[in-house]
Write a structure and sequence with these properties.
- Helix content is about 65%, strand content about 5%.
- By secondary structure, it is mostly helical.
- The protein has one domain: Four Helix Bundle (Hemerythrin (Met), subunit A).
- A two-stranded antiparallel sheet has the order 1-2.
- α2 packs antiparallel against α5 and α4 runs antiparallel to α5.
- It is elongated.
- The termini are far apart.
- The mean pLDDT is about 90.
Length: about 190
């Protein structure tokens, strides 16, 4: 029971962090749009919101309603993966600075995509971090159904999201040439 309460505190911290991120994104979005930036893939946003809200809710409900137990052999590695995913996302956000938003927004003027920091190794470190978080957070307390279901749903959504983002970046700057040969998620992986 104590471990369920501790998981709930971790869960609450993630909820508060996501709310802070939405606020930060809105501030960045407003500034970018004042400068003439363009929003892309607007139809995907309701799906992203539903996926993340559903993932958070399902994580907590599965732990409590299905009385999932904490098992150190699973929970500790999952927590480490979750923290790594958080770190990867925060580094990506920091690297993008005021260009980071939840939505796909590109500057109106042809600015090159950010290619320094963690973006030297991956095209989409933020999405890699999100994928780790979605899989790992529920597993911290044995909620394997949530981890499996929402990882699959996130994979489907990311296929569309990444395609839209890469099209938008390629249309507004030298993205294709700049990131040729750089893997999307795993350093040293396939080159497309």
């Amino acid at each position: 029971m104590l471990s369920q309460w501790l998981f709930s505190l971790l869960w609450l911290g993630v909820v508060l962090q996501r709310l802070w991120e939405v606020g930060l994104s809105r501030r960045h979005e407003a500034r970018l749009k004042e400068e003439g930036a363009i929003e892309h893939a607007q139809a995907q946003m309701p799906w992203m919101i539903a996926l993340h809200a559903g993932w958070l809710l399902a994580s907590l409900l599965e732990v409590w309603l299905l009385d999932r137990r904490f098992h150190a052999w699973l929970g500790v590695p999952a927590l480490l993966l979750f923290v790594f995913g958080q770190g990867l996302r925060l580094v990506a956000m920091y690297t993008l600075g005021e260009r980071w938003t939840v939505k796909v927004i590109t500057p109106i003027h042809s600015q090159p995509a950010v290619a320094h920091g963690v973006y030297r190794f991956l095209r989409h470190p933020n999405y890699a971090g999100v994928a780790l978080e979605i899989a790992a957070l529920p597993l911290v307390h044995g909620a394997y159904l949530t981890a499996l279901l929402f990882s699959m749903l996130n994979g489907l959504l990311l296929q569309a999201r990444i395609a839209a983002e890469e099209r938008a970046l390629a249309a507004t700057g030298p993205y294709a040439a700049q990131f040729r040969g750089r893997p999307r998620f795993i350093p040293g992986a396939w080159r497309t």
